[in-house]
Design brief:
mainly alpha, two-stranded parallel ribbon, single chain
Length: 385
């Protein structure tokens, strides 16, 4: 009662001798919870924090297997009809054709507009950023062979979808992304994970703002520093076709159409509402150890339903048009998982919230590295043999 009475005062009227050395009533106070739960349970009511804040000096290192394989097996056991949702989506190629046509039309339309004018920048951000984000995610969808039955047809469509992005992107992305699924969170293999250098340099508000603004460059350049690829003929096709289009645009219409495409790609991976999915998908929030988060809001319409990210990782063979049906089929698995209510607010909260940052990613040792740590004696004996 005495402590309660002294709290009624303000300013110098408060007797801080009751509070063990505290200098304000906000010390240790946590921000509002950022994720929501559709069907609250005893384990997670969707309001309180499930766990303490993460240590901001290191990533969240975990020893468990990635969760998607086990949940996939459980869903297939509970709902064997889920296999009917699998298979390619014929609609994808028509959406890609429409979006590529729109972007190339706008690029040529702006050939007489100054690149730093309001109209040019507004269209590059509002329209170009949205459409190129859509094409990034079209390539993501096609990477899983979900536009056609055949492999080469999917790859050819991905090369076509790459055209308005301005730089060759598809072929390198495919290999890195498949490894991201197979080796989720494995250090040195999953190139979606931030590096120790990023943790050291960007782990504050200014650094997070820089990261969120220029994240397209981090996703483009980081893989080359973490794990190089061996080029294939599709890397060559991707480069040749892209450079050919860029040359035709510049030679025929000048540099401005190409600048529009490049500006669009930059905005698509910067402080753009749809770019919130980059951070929303796998950063750890609210003291949880959950590695993947979904988003079920309206921006999915523009983004191939990539917000259904737990569903996608559980069943990468189910196309974007049927991911909502997967969630509806197995609500007991998905509605209990914390999810994000807003992509734009993910970016805002990522920057301002001290409980989330570059450090907020779950990592595990790569399987090869784990085996080396677990059985050094067996490996040395085999060497002697």
């Amino acid at each position: 009662m005495a402590a309660q009475s002294v709290c009624k005062g303000t300013g110098s009227g408060i007797d801080f001798s009751y509070f063990g050395g505290a200098e304000s009533f906000t010390e240790g106070k946590r921000s509002l919870r950022r994720t929501t739960v559709v069907s609250p349970s005893e384990q997670d009511d969707g309001v309180s924090y499930p766990g303490p804040p993460q240590d901001p000096t290191d990533f969240l290192w975990i020893m468990t297997e990635e969760p998607h394989r086990s949940r996939r097996m459980a869903i297939m056991k509970a709902h064997p009809e889920v296999t009917k949702l699998m298979g390619y989506e014929p609609l994808t190629k028509y959406v890609v054709l429409a979006v590529v046509s729109l972007q190339l039309y706008l690029a040529i339309y702006l050939r007489h507009t100054h690149p730093l004018s309001f109209r040019f920048l507004f269209l590059a951000y509002a329209v170009g950023g949205t459409t190129n984000q859509n094409l990034f995610l079209a390539i993501h969808e096609i990477t899983h062979n979900l536009a056609f039955k055949g492999i080469n047809a999917n790859k050819a469509l991905a090369v076509f979808a790459n055209l308005p992005i301005g730089v060759p992107y598809f072929a390198a992305f495919k290999k890195y992304h498949i490894e991201h699924h197979k080796h989720l969170g494995e250090d040195g293999i999953d190139t979606d994970l931030p590096t120790n250098f990023e943790l050291l340099c960007l782990n504050n508000v200014l650094g997070k703002t820089f990261f969120a603004t220029f994240q397209i460059f981090f996703y483009a350049l980081r893989p080359g520093f973490v794990k190089m690829q061996t080029p294939t003929r599709w890397h060559l096709y991707n480069v040749i076709v892209q450079l050919l289009l860029d040359y035709i645009l510049v030679h025929t219409f000048g540099i401005r159409p190409l600048l529009y495409l490049l500006f669009s790609s930059f905005f698509a991976g910067s402080l753009h509402p749809c770019a919130g999915h980059f951070i929303a998908e796998h950063y750890v929030w609210d003291g949880l150890s959950q590695e993947t988060y979904s988003y079920y809001g309206p921006l999915n319409i523009l983004a191939y339903n990539v917000g259904y990210h737990n569903e996608h990782h559980d069943f990468p063979s189910i196309p974007w048009t049927r991911l909502p049906a997967l969630r509806a089929l197995a609500p007991e698995f998905y509605d209990i998982l914390p999810s994000h209510p807003s992509w734009p607010m993910v970016i805002v909260n990522f920057i301002r919230d001290k409980e989330v940052g570059i450090f907020a990613r779950a990592k595990r040792l790569a399987k090869n590295s784990k085996q080396k740590h677990e059985s050094p004696s067996s490996s040395s004996s085999s060497d002697r043999e």
